[in-house]
Every structure is written in structure tokens, then in C-alpha cells.
Please model this.
Amino acid sequence: MNEKAPALTIALTGQPNVGKSTIYNLLTGQSQYVSNWPGKTSECQECCFNFHGERIRLVDLPGTYSLSANSVEEQIARDYLIKDRPDVLLVILDAVNLERNLYLVAELLNLPVPFVLGINRTDLADSQDIHIEPEVLQAAIKVPVIPLVAQRGEGIQEAIEAAVHLALHLEEWKPDRPLIREDHLKVLDELEQIIQNRVPVPYPTDWVAVKLLEGDRKITEMVQENLGADWEKVHALLLQHDDAFLAVVSERYDWINRMVHAAIVRPRSGKVTITDRLDRVATHSVWGVLVLIAVMAGLFGLTFSIGIPIQTWLEKNVIQAAATWIFGTFTYFPQWIVSLIANGLISGVGTVLTLLPILVLFFFGMGILEDSGYMARAAFVMDQAMHPFGLHGKSFLPLSFSIGCNVPAVMESRIIEEPRSRLITILLTPFIPCFPRLSVVVILAPIFFGKNAFLYSLLIFSIPIIFLVIYGKCFHELLQSGKHNAFIMELPLYQAPQLKAIFKSVGVRIVDFLKGAGTIILVVSAGLWALSYFPGGNIEGSFLSLWGQWLDPVSKLIGLDWRMAVALITSMLRSENTLSTLSVLYGVGPQMTLSEAAASQVTPAAGLAFLAMQILFIPCIATLAAIRNESKSWRWTLGYVGLRLMTSLIVGILIYQGYRLFQWGV
Model:
């Protein structure tokens, strides 16, 4: 049976971080990621829900500060409102920042789309002694106004009822519209007469005329193209009134001031709120950094002190136990099938499974910090430090957590709205070596360098940081032409985290990881197993070892034999596989330890080059899967693989050859 067609379309709009996504989720039962960051929704979300027996289509537009189309979000929202034109809008405002939110309302009033105002977070406003009188505001604007507390579901049904009623009784839509200062009304009329019947459908002529006076670039280009030679009349009129922008904007702010004066009672002058007290420390140039370090260290320590033991337990008691059971049970199957299941598929599933405890703990901790309002302060504090890379403060968060695990760090890049800044963050994040990769260096450095292991380790750890700076500047020039993004964001009030919303957001992110990255991990794990098994049935006689021997001429430039080259390749499955591969290929057993085998066959020069390559080499497949999932691009993912491979090779060759020259006294 075909589902009943929607009777009405309601669009949710508002400025960033006003609670639209919360309302959307409550009405539709969806699980869109909700967070106390501005601008979480970067595209239209659409779903249907039932209301009093009718099917309603609900569209969640991206948060937008205005309709000037200066950003991707503003362009998406504006195009939808004009071209798709929903039956009615539900405009969500933040009660704590009502004055700023009303600017968008002033712009929406000039579009031919009726709307209801929902004032969210009235509970937080009351806690700050900001008292709003919805009835007075409704009488002043002549638009239905409904108070909301979206986190508790209060007022949402009333808002939908008001929106449906307005959509069915359009004759009641008679709002008080701010237009333009009186001294410029005449020029607005002249402009409308020139462009009358020359504006493309469905753009309203009066709205286009106002946008021309504002100097809106996209609207100006559209009108110029449609008018042809007659554009000169418009151009001449605009030149005569080059202050028209001020006439439009000043009238809007005068209108906002009238609304605010009528409907809002503010706290007495000089009162210091809890948010003010906390921000004296949290946003301080020195204390704020120390607080951030302490907070991130606490999150890092808690995540890994709990997550690593669980990961280890899963690996030993679930993954290894399952593989052992497969080998012991299916003895009558061909050996390669048993090995594929045990070492290939279960290994791939295991990689995903053992990451889940860390991901869940990390996302839960981040959810608490985000929902409380602290993460906005962290971004503010770190903004200046990120500028050399063309990034802003939000990029610090993925980079800082990458030392624990690159996978959740890359996934956290989605908090960055601007696509190019997000891509740069995705590409730079894995240059911070994860804990397993650092562990390989810590274990092998004493074998290669003896008592000088600590100094050599510090040198090796500094290499990826150097390349993070170098490639950060290169990506900045390539993708952003050296221009810095303006970082304008509100600092929301501190609030108690909503655990229900946090659990839901954690679930959404985990499912997203399993759907996107999990499939890639499984496929690549099986592929690497095949390369390490066939045709000889073991890694020593496999295609992987054959490739390693083919690479011998290149390996010799770095002072490595083919076995160390193979160890690097297997580290793509998991970074710590380097150690197990070296143990197998060097014939480590009861008679010889890895330390003895490697120390006797690897010179300090080759050891230094190998560890430098190890820390710069292609990230593990879980990280690559996350990069593909977040960038939505195989081209950038494969290009990044090539970049890391080339960088590690060049650095390995330079270090080995340079070390030898230094030793020879040249």
C-alpha cells in the first residue's frame, strides 16, 4: 500500500545552535547529531511525521545567521525558502540571544512565506533573569509566538498546531514588516518599477529590490543578467544611493530594538552570571589554555585507562579465542579457507570491534563537554594557534586527541562547518602519531640505539610534527589560497548536559562509523591477508614477501632488507603489526629474541631511517576508512596514501644516507 502523501510541508529554520535539530528529532524520531556547537546542520534534513491523522513533511534547514548567502548554509536555506517555498515556517529563536536572533526574523518577514516563532530555552533565559513575554512579542510582530523548552519537549506540539493552523488560514498572515528607512522609500519604489516583470520566477520583486539596495552579490548578478542593457538604469540608481545599505540595515535594527524593548525584561545592570564567572577563567589567554590542557588530559586519560583494557580483553578473549576456535574446529576444511576466516575476516571484524570501546568513551566524553558549552570555549582559546594552517580553534580538538587514536580524531573533524577547513583538518590529523605507533618506536629504539634510545626517540617523535606544520601551510595555500577563515561563533551559556541526547548522538556516530569505515576495514583486512598467505601458505613465501624482495633496490637506499619493508606494509592493518611481522620474518623463537635478531642485522643508521618511516608511513586502514568516510572522496584518500608513502620514503632515504655521511666524517 502506498504511504499517504504529506498534507503540508513545514520547514524548520533559525540561527545556528538554537535547538532546531532537537525539535526535528523529537517530531520525526530521527537521530540527527545534536550538539552545543553552532552550525551542526550543513544540509537540509527531511522526514515525515503524523500529526492529528495528517502526514506532515518536516524539513530542517541549516542554521543561518541571515539570508545574505555569504556561506553555504545561508545559500542552501535561502534557495529552499524561495524556490521550494514550504507551506509554513517554524522559526526557532534562542531566548537567551533573542535580540540577535531577531535579525533573521526581520529578513524572513520580507519573504512570502508565513511562519510561527518558537522561542526555545526559555528556562535558561529565566535562570539568567531574562524574562520574555511571548504575548507582547506576538502582538508587536503580529506573528504567532510559542515558548519552548525543546530538551524537555515542552511547547513543541503547540508550535506545530500553530504552524498547521497558519498554513490553512493564510488570510491571518498580516505581520509587521521592517522595510527601509523613510528617506529611501522613493528609491525603493523606483527600483521596483524598473525590475518589474524582469525578475526570474519565483523571486519576489520587492524582496529582490531590497537585496539590490543591500548590495547582495548573487542577486545583483542575477538581475544584471536578466536586464541586459537596462541594467544601466539600475546601476545608475544604485550609484546615486550608495548609502542605501545603511538605510535597510538601520531600519531592521530599529525594528529589533522596538520588539526587544516591548517584550524583554533584562537583568539589572552589572549583575554577574555564573557563565560570566566561569568564562573569566575558561576564555583567559593563559588560564584558559591550562584549563583546556587539564580537560583534554582528563578526557584522554579516562578514555584510554578504561578503553585500552577493554580493547585488550576483547582482542584476547574474543578475537584471538574465535580465531583459535576456528582453527581447532574446522580442521576438515581447506587450510586457506580456515585461515581466511580466522586471520582475514575475524581480524577485520576484530579491528572494528576493539575500536568500539575507545570510540564510545571518547564520543561520550566529547558529548558531555560539547553539550555543557565548554567546547566553544576551547575553540576560542586555541583559535590563534591554528591560524598558520588556515584553520580555526575547532581544529585543535581533532588534532589533540589524535595521539590516542586517529580514528575518532578524524571523525571529530565534522564539527568544522567550512568544507575546506574540515578537509585540511582531516588530512593533518593523522600526522599526530597514535599510541600504538608510538609504542613501536618505544620498543624498537632501545634495540637499535641502546643507551641513546631516549634522544633518538625524541628526534623521531619530532619528525611528524615538522611535517604537520609543512603540509599544513601547503594545504592552506592549495585549498584556501592563503586566506584565513573568519572565526565568528557565539559562546553558549553553560548548561547541564542532557544524557539522553548524548547517548543518542554516540549511537548515531558509532552506527555511522560501522556503516562507512567498517566495511572498508573488513575488505582491506581480507585483501592484506590474501597477499600475506598466497601462494605459499605463509608470510615468508607470500606475494607480500615477494613484493618486499622486489622492493629490495629501494630498500637498500634506506639500509633495510625486504623483511623490514614487509613489516612497514603490514603496519597498515594495525600499527603494532610491525613487531609481530619482524618476529616472524627474522625467525624469532626460543633460541633468539627480536632484540638479538634485529640488533645483529640492523645498523643504527638503518634503524633510525626505519623508525622515521614507521612514524610517517601510511596510516592504518581504520584511519584511512575514516578519512574516506569523512572526506567523502576516494581521490583525496588515495592521494593522501601516496603523499604519506612518498614522504616516508624520501625521509627514510635522506636520514639513512645523511647518517652514513655523518658517520664517515663527510
